Amino acid sequence: MGKALIIGCGGVASAAIHKCCQNSEVFTEICIASRTKAKCDALKEKLEGTTSTKITTAQVDADHVDELTALIKKEKPDVVLNLALPYQDLTIMDACLAAKTHYIDTANYEPEDTAKFEYKWQWAYREKFEKAGITALLGSGFDPGVTGVFSAYAQKHYFDEIHYIDILDCNAGDHGYPFATNFNPEINIREVSARGSYWENGSWVETEPMEIKKVYDFPEIGEKDMYLLHHEELESLALNIKGIKRIRFFMTFGQSYLTHLKCLENVGMTSIEPIEFEGKQIVPLQFLKAVLPDPSSLGPRTKGKTNIGCIFRGIKDGKERNLYIYNVCDHQECYREVGSQAVAYTTGVPAMIGAMMVMTGKWLKPGVFNVEEFDPDPFMEALNRWGLPWKTEEQPELVD
Ligand code: NDP
């Protein structure tokens, strides 16, 4: 079928690349390009001989549009799958425009010096992509990503109008460390230490970080504490799900994680303000990242399951209706299959599927789009086929 250029070679990329290599009919060729080429070469060596996908590697600094454009023009991929960090989204989008190549990512742009993630920067590219005749698919991970596809699916098949969405992200995995993050520590800590917010009756309601706590009995996992966070898909779903009154996002955290985070915050280690240290400027959070366990090393140690899904409440044929759509994933099964824990797996699989949707022409229209703006059916089928089967429950426990 075609060729994907994958940028980044960390935890999520590794899971996505394993899945592309299982799906050689679509991904006949991939080029893995990242800042540290040795990581790309090591992954290529591990996968070669297990797949008919042809794999090449390259070095690229994705902060530089010229370097990226030259690479895309040389490799001539059908799509560019951005699995580097949110800081690189705009440079990669600019390069895709210059080389007229479709773009897919899993996280929205965030300036490195402001911990605020919003779609406004990437949505500003709508007209440019439309004029260039190419597609940008934003947020094709799990959350954002599958949560948006679940919403579009609920809207298409179950509701006349959805009024309430609660997105619940439960990670009941235990890696045995007192404190570690399941994906890039810098991005993760920026996200969880920010103020919370949710969308209600047409505007944002802000909370203190971790101010709202609920307990939920997750299918196949049991009771867990979860906390309201701001999350990027709230912004696009508030626009794209017509008639919506409220959307909230909750994530589970264990007590050990929260105690460590509070302590690190209190001593200034989670700050993104540069400080002077031994004659050099350093960012405390980047230093903290360097001493924490690398998320990609957690795979063999992490046991337990994740459950991520959405609870919808709304109206069908004049009657109230509820629906819970969720996926349960087992950390050890993911590790056996692709050598990654479930957080990388649950992001990497939808990243591969998003790239497949664009490459096969199922999700192709000029412009910049979030996942819920496309037909959810082929993506939902692909989730079942490629390792993230989902379940529905029509009488779920509700959050309030
Ligand atoms: P990692 O830190 O493990 O990997 C990031 C990769 O990007 C590394 O290979 C890194 O290279 C590379 N990289 C960073 N800067 C550059 C640069 N300037 N040029 C080229 N390559 C660069 O992160 P994760 O795999 O944990 O996360 C990847 C993305 O997935 C993030 O954007 C994250 O927010 C997103 N994500 C999305 C989720 C969702 O459900 N939607 C859930 C979890 C994550 P090097 O090896 O040299 O450091």
From TrEMBL:
Domain (Saccharopine dehydrogenase NADP binding) ranges: 5-137
A Pfam short name: Sacchrp_dh_C
Q: Which residue numbers delimit the Saccharopine dehydrogenase-like C-terminal domain? A: 141-387
What InterPro entries does UniProt report for this protein, alphabetically? NAD(P)-bd_dom_sf, Sacchrp_dh-like_C, Sacchrp_dh_NADP-bd
Can you tell which superkingdom this protein's organism belongs to?
Answer: Bacteria
Could you identify this protein by its name?
Carboxynorspermidine dehydrogenase
Please tell me the species this chain comes from: Lactonifactor longoviformis DSM 17459
